[in-house]
């Protein structure tokens, strides 16, 4: 079941990432839609497992695969949105922190399974609750696309601007090159910035 959910999620992630490239400033809306649909799939799975809805293997498969498609499919958008919102902090720092937070949450979740007295019925409700809690947080986040604004800027590079840099006028550069290396000094004298 999870294999198909992961496969569907990876495919959806590639397709949606390509689609959202054309609508850069709509990532938040796409993520809200994905998380709403993933939340409905998680609720459907939970109600099936709790015997509120009639249990059926096909429905369990469908709920897991649909949930995986929307959760895993939204992961690239989630990273992209977090990087946009945290700009000008570096992408590596932001992505690393998000991965660390995700790994820590997984460790806490799996550590709770070691307590035998609490059972396992809470797991599906916790899964649904985490997705449901993410929707209002996504809704109220202030999306500023500073990085996208810089990417969208047009720069005119048609003007020929060159500045002659002479090391003879700069005592710091002259001290580095010194008189011992005439080839180095001639290269620096003829360089343009």
TrEMBL record:
<dbReference type="InterPro" id="IPR049680">
    <property type="entry name" value="FLVCR1-2_SLC49-like"/>
</dbReference>
<feature type="transmembrane region" description="Helical">
    <location>
        <begin position="61"/>
        <end position="83"/>
    </location>
</feature>
<feature type="transmembrane region" description="Helical">
    <location>
        <begin position="121"/>
        <end position="141"/>
    </location>
</feature>
<dbReference type="InterPro" id="IPR036259">
    <property type="entry name" value="MFS_trans_sf"/>
</dbReference>
<keyword id="KW-0812">Transmembrane</keyword>
<feature type="transmembrane region" description="Helical">
    <location>
        <begin position="29"/>
        <end position="49"/>
    </location>
</feature>
<keyword id="KW-1133">Transmembrane helix</keyword>
<keyword id="KW-0472">Membrane</keyword>
<feature type="transmembrane region" description="Helical">
    <location>
        <begin position="95"/>
        <end position="115"/>
    </location>
</feature>
<protein>
    <submittedName>
        <fullName>Solute carrier family 49 member 4</fullName>
    </submittedName>
</protein>
